[in-house]
Predict the structure.
Amino acid sequence: AQSVSQHNHHVILSEAASLELGCNYSYGGTVNLFWYVQYPGQHLQLLLKYFSGDPLVKGIKGFEAEFIKSKFSFNLRKPSVQWSDTAEYFCAVNAAGGYQKVTFGIGTKLQVIP
Amino acid sequence: GAVVSQHPSRVICKSGTSVKIECRSLDFQATTMFWYRQFPKQSLMLMATSNEGSKATYEQGVEKDKFLINHASLTLSTLTVTSAHPEDSSFYICSAREDKQTQYFGPGTRLLVL
């Protein structure tokens, strides 16, 4: 079974600072990777996903993530955060091939200070 | 994008009563829907996978007689918490699968059992 770890549980940044949220997964086979975001008072939304191909994935709102297979990582990045990026971010993984259940990380709360 | 709704958004009930939560995919057909439970400061925990026209698949440790799932159509799945007790108080989230791997989430239902 796969597992996901997100190292930073709470991150506080000033506006315009660069962001990198760590995500590592544990699974021996091919995986699909996701980042979801939950803004305050709202439901989970898909930020970006990786199935195959270019390991650098671009998502909505200027976010990107890079899949590094050798490190079992899928870190989320944004060059310059805004106050509106304040939210909780969840990394998720499932085994590729057919449908396999998705496993979520514990989430990282990002607080952006104006 | 794909929209998933849940109803009700919050419910308070007395111990021993049953509560039904609806999950609808509004602009796409979902052969598979998922029910999650989210505890405070924890990640989403998959409870069950709901397939249209067939019995739900429950995760280990989830009582199928307590959490009844019905997926009668391609746009509606229901979760009924039977004989609810205070320990069932939680945030219940559904998601619907649009393509092979991507899930879209509902806004969640906050259940409080007194």
Remarks:
- Chain B has no helices and eleven strands.
- The interface with chain A takes residues 1, 4, 32, 34, 42-44, 46, 49, 93, 95, 97, 100-108 of chain B (CB under 8 Å).
- The radius of gyration of chain B is 13 Å.
- The mean pLDDT of chain B is 91.
